[in-house]
Amino acid sequence: MADSSLAVQPVHASSASSAARLSSIGRRSYVSIRGLEAVLADVKQLGELPDSVSRRTIKRRRDEQLAECSTEFGPLMQFMDVPEEDKPGEVVKVPILPPAAWLASATYQCAGWRSFFQARLQASPCSHTAPWKIVVYADEVSPGNQLKHCNARLYLRTYGTLVFADIGVLVADEAAIKQALENKGASGTVLCCHCSNVIDFKSQLQWHDRSGELVSSLSTDVRSWRLHTENSVKQLIAFLQEQRSVLNLGQFAKLEQSLGFNFRPHGLLAQPEWGPKFVERTMFDWMHVYLVHGVANVQCGLVVGVLARHGFSIKHMREFAQGFNWPARLRGAAPKTVLDKRGASEPIKCSASELLNFVQLLRDIVYRQFDVMKSPAEMPGSAVSLVNARAAPKRLANVVRQSLGALEDAVVESAADAIHAGGYTVARGDIASIQLYHAAQVEKRVGRIEFHAAVGQVTWSCVHL
Question: What backbone phi and psi angles, to 5 degrees, belong to 424?
Answer without folding.
Answer: -125, 170
